[in-house]
Amino acid sequence: MIESDLLTMAYPPLLVFAAALLVLVLPRALGFAVAALSLAATVAVAFFAPEGAHLTTTFLGFADIQPFYIDEFTRMVGGGLGFLGAFGVIYAYSSDAPRVMAAFALAYVASALGAAFAGDWLVLVFMWEIMAITSTLLVWHHGGDAVRAGYRYAIAHGIGGSLVLFAVIAQYAITGSFAMVDAAGETVGMADGLPLLLAVLGIGVNVAFVGFHTWLPDTYPRPHFAASVFLAAFTTKTSAYVLFRAIPDGHLLLAYMGGAMAVYGVVFALLQHDMRALLSYHIQAQLGYMVAGIGIGTAIGVAGAMGHLFNNVLYKSLLFMAVGVVIYRTGENDLYKLGGLWREMPITAIAFAIGALSITAVPGFSGFISKGMVLDAADPGYYGAPEYQALYWLLFIGAIGTFLSFIKLGYYVFLHGPAERTVKDAKTGQTVAMFSVGGACVILGLPVVGWPVFTDLLPLVDGVTVTQLDTALNPYSAGHLTDAAILIAVSAVGFKLIRKPLSKLDYSDPALIVNPATYYTGRYTMLGVTDLYAAVDAAVVGFVKRCYWLGNNPALAVDEAARRVPGLEVEKRQPADGGRPSTIHLRTSIGTTVLLLTIVLTAVLWVLVT
Amino acid sequence: MSSVELLPALLVAIPILLAAVPIVLGLRYDRTGWSVAAVTTVGLAAATIALASAVYADGQVVHVLGGWGEPQGIGIELVADEFSTLIAVLVTVTAAAVLAYTRIGGPRGNTFYAGYLLLVGGLLGLSMTGDVFNMFVFLEIVGLATYAMISSGDGPESAVAALKYLILGTVGASLYLIGVGFLFMATGALNMQVLGEAIPQIAEAGGGDLTLLHAAFAFIFVGFALKVAQWPLHTWQPDAYQHAPDGVTPVIAALVSTVSAYALGRVMFTVFGVDFLVATPYLTEIVVAVGSISVLAGSTLAVIQTDVKRMFAYSSVSQFGLVVAAYGLVTETALLGAIVHLIGHGLMKAGLFVAAGVIALGYGARTVDEYAGLADRRPIPAAATAVLLIALIGIPPSVGFIGKWYIAVGSVQAEMWPVAAVVFLSTMLTLAYAARLLEKMYFTPASALESPHGPGAVATDGGERTDGHNTADAGAESIAADGGILVGSSSRGSPDSVSFGMLALLVSTAVLAVVLGFAGGTFADLLGPFVTEVFN
């Protein structure tokens, strides 16, 4: 098929990167259009290019490197990222995003796509590092507060990236190959031991494991609100996908880390005042569901995780878009200072509602399908094992927390009290972007018509059947709907109870402790190393200087040494020639040399001849 | 006899014959010496390169002098093989290039250039002779020419240094001659090729003749150890290098000891042969020990010098120690390394002494302390010195690195760990004296108070600074007389007397030292046939 052959040549990251360069030089509207088109093309390539490895090449002296690999996983991740990216560009265009920022964002998108389409670890780690750099530039470009946060972001990702790099090296040392996927299309995974440990820790930085997450709520609220849309979608989701590639079979501890992230994320999300910080903590919580699904490692767990990843790309960006419009129109980040905006900006309110209903997994929206799959994978009543019982409850608590915090966000921004200000609603481009993304969230979650299409996209799921388990999915069963109803009821009552005390709480972010701790640890380590170096340096230089002095002033040195001997009087040496006080006449006379010559000759003759 | 076979004989005869021309012309004209020398050396360089291309294409070229093919091996031959041709190229190219310095920098005079040509002829003969007695003759020609060159410096120090070299050099050559006598007694032959075949047979037979061979080796080795300036027989060398005129030191330093070291290698490997060297108890140990001790002693002495030329002279003691130690390892790689280091050291040391001359001429600086702040005032000579020093340390890419590298690899192959340690230590010690100079040039500001030729400027070992910088002083004073500029630290030396040719020579030497650092494979290819033949 000629068309599909052509598609295999269209390496999406390259297309997007070319668009990034074009945005800089073309007129603004045209440049953004080209960028959106390049991302739309990415979606087309992702869905229509034939499966398998393309553009196999030799890179850095390693043969059989696959930069462009298409299978069910990369198709879905790459397609999802491309779809969101296209509307993100439209949103950025109408949000007055500067062209340079757009270029950085597109370069960042290109590197994330490169990581998503990578067919082996070498390309992946390469793209991984570029992604860290481009995203840091995207943050830095905003200036002000974003610079320091971007610096912390860069340090975190530098450490994470190095760990992944070492993991890939260790993997190569053990297995002798960079292959991510074997010939049959099965994911290989990192070898047990050092590679796996390093990989999980390194990827753990990017997917915001509890304890490694401080960069996330620190960084994402600070740059331009259109940049936040991109940041929210790409790094963490790509990393969650890579986490699956590293541990295809899951691990109990990893699953529980996912549960912990879900609970931890929503608890801190509830405590936030800043709208984008609240959403940022939700990124961590939602990643918790993906990590849990990957950790469980069963077909439905992984499929649910991937589905949740895809959905998350859509609705989390939608939420960042809606909140971005609010910030754009009001200039206010603090949700307690807003209120009643639904009358002023109904379009934005509707878009926000779609996103909120999706993320809280209300039936009829896409989040319901994927979150349900993860919960079912953990629930011993469905597909889970007994050891996941506690995980199930953690994820359930996370779901309640998600409800609470989105009720909080929606209530204070759009409902609470009368609108104190008169503002315009979203611009056309913003509206188009929000409703396109929101539309996908709704359609993919609709009963009967929508969700089978969505599940068909998922890896390991064929139509509505989970291939390995040979069971059909049935999200709209009575049991699931009851669960959802319980969830909503508990949350609605719960919010009534905690609304008052919650509004009095100001958040105590662990970043407040972690950042100074990191700062002082870094500072004193640096000082320690510098001082140690200086001490060693001084010692060595002092030693060498003394040696030189000894060599140049042998007579003085002998005098000095003699003076230290007790009971020995040494006269002060008077320079005889008026210049240097310490000269030894080493010059050997002709006679002495001839004597030496004779001695050497005698010695050599004696050794050789006798 | 084809024209190529004539070349070796012409290369030796022409400079010796033309040495008379400057003197004859001098009866009529004042300054013809330089022109004659320039034309001759450039012609010789072209001829050696032509010879080299023939040798590397078709193998060795042998010229039987007078066509006297005598059966017992007393007939005199000139042999241009892969090893000797490389040395001949070094000799002629260096001799031609250094003339770029002496044109302005001196010394002048027709007799000087007569001696210069005689020296070149002797060196070429020494490189290409295929006969051990003839080698003595050329050794003496080189020696005599060198004495004349050293004594051409003004002042008593030059005369004393020349006398010292005259006496010691003659004693060394005599020891060599005694060794040759023993050889002749044992084998009845003088031709190297014939000797190379006879000696293994005697070694196998044993008896009194073998003892003669051992004695012969002892005399020859000790004689060359003096000529190559191995510690503790080096004592003539620092004086000679320091007190020779600035224009002469590069030639002597780069060529005289180098060709002597070549001759030692030639006698060891072509005449005595690998089997004899390895079979004789303690022989390789002695050679390695002499070389290694020279490396350490020479570097250490170099570190404590205050006079730059003297420092470079001691550095030569150490670098030749490395070459001798490499000979003693008796492996293919080490021999290759020794040859490469011979060439590389000759090049770098010539460059360094030219730099020392240029700096003395243009800046009036002769001691390490006076080099302070040189990088700011004379950036080109300072940079060239820096590059050459770095190459001498053996930091890649440089010709110094590949030589040391091959020697180090050879020592590891021979499992002579002390030598490997000495190579490493020599690098550290070279770094020590090079760093001293680099630090002065680049990081110490020139002191305005310091008098350029203060009374305290006496070399550590008592070698007093004299002569040689007269030209520089004269230049500086003439500025003072003409333009009223005071002779002081701000106008030391006379930059005007540094010609473009000198700087071009300096810069191209530095560049060559780096470029040849990429030529390790080329050297290995060129010398491969010789090394293989020696070891099989």
From TrEMBL, chain A:
Record localization: Cell membrane
Organism (species): Natrialba swarupiae
This protein's UniProt keywords: Cell membrane, Membrane, Oxidoreductase, Transmembrane, Transmembrane helix
Membrane topology per record: Multi-pass membrane protein
Annotated transmembrane regions: 6-25, 32-53, 73-93, 100-117, 123-141, 153-174, 194-213, 225-247, 253-271, 283-303, 309-328, 349-370, 390-411, 432-454, 478-498, 590-609
UniProt key word Oxidoreductase: yes
InterPro entries in alphabetical order: ComplexI-like_HydComp, ND/Mrp_TM
Residues making up the signal peptide according to the UniProt record: none
Domain NADH:quinone oxidoreductase/Mrp antiporter transmembrane: residue ranges: 118-378
Keyword Oxidoreductase in annotation: yes
One Pfam family named in its UniProt record: Proton_antipo_M
GO molecular function, one term: oxidoreductase activity
Name assigned to this protein: Na(+)/H(+) antiporter subunit D
Domain of life per record: Archaea
Gene Ontology cellular-component annotations: plasma membrane
PANTHER family: HYDROGENASE-4 COMPONENT F, NADH-UBIQUINONE_PLASTOQUINONE
TrEMBL record, chain B:
Species, as recorded: Natrialba swarupiae
Membrane topology designation: Multi-pass membrane protein
One Gene Ontology CC term in the entry: plasma membrane
One Pfam family hit: Proton_antipo_M
Principal cellular location given in the protein's record: membrane
GO biological process: ATP synthesis coupled electron transport
Signal peptide annotation: none
Keywords annotated in UniProt: Cell membrane, Membrane, Transmembrane, Transmembrane helix
GO molecular function terms listed in the Swiss-Prot or TrEMBL record: NADH dehydrogenase (ubiquinone) activity
Transmembrane helix among keywords: yes
Name of the protein in its database record: Monovalent cation/H+ antiporter subunit D family protein
Record field: transmembrane: 6-27, 34-57, 83-101, 113-129, 135-153, 165-190, 210-229, 250-274, 286-304, 311-330, 342-365, 386-407, 419-438, 500-524
Record InterPro entries: CPA3_Na-H_Antiporter_D, NADH_UbQ_OxRdtase, ND/Mrp_TM
